[in-house]
Amino acid sequence: MSLVLSPSFYQRNTKAVARALLGKKLVRIYKGERLSGIITEVEAYMGIKDKAAHVYGGRRTLRTEAMYAAGGISYVYLIYGMYYCLNAVTEKKEVPQAVLVRSLEPLEGIKTMQALRKNSNIKNLTTGPGKLTQAMHITKSENGLSLGSDALFIEEGITVSKSNIIKTTRIGVDYAGDHAAWPLRFYIKDNSFISKK
DNA sequence: CGGCTGATCGTG
DNA sequence: ACGATCAGCCGA
Asked: With a 7 Å cutoff on the CB, does A60 touch strand C?
């Protein structure tokens, strides 16, 4: 049996997927080497009714096309002209929702990840959405990739009990007005690999 | 066509 | 607190 999560894991309620992704292991094969980390922090983006989401109001462009596919693939986009963010697309086809992976606790390939970022200590390696994509060399080339592909996948990790999940508001979405207050950010309690607010 | 903006981060 | 930096979105 494989440890890799199957599409059915993603093709359901986005908030449930967000919570369930905590503790799972994100794996990237880069130049033949395995880079990985435990997912410690995520945010849910609730699609066309979510003012913070790129697809709000049903906007559908070349950039957001991956969001409209069936759950189980990546949605990678460039933000602020210099960083990439990695999302796991959820729900069924034509329901454009996703979970943003915000932080990891590094596990494998730490030296390579440190080289891909510049002189960073371990606590600064993958504790932010732009940092972890840099550490794992995840770019626009990985947009739309299956999360069960050879080069990028998510597999079973550690168990996180419900009482160890903190729920709060999302970061950097003030432009979303009242929807900025929605409690859609989840992270592992007492874990030190979390991005700062 | 041109102007504006952002699911961030590092520096100060 | 602020600037970097540019693809992509939107209005004209």
From this structure: no
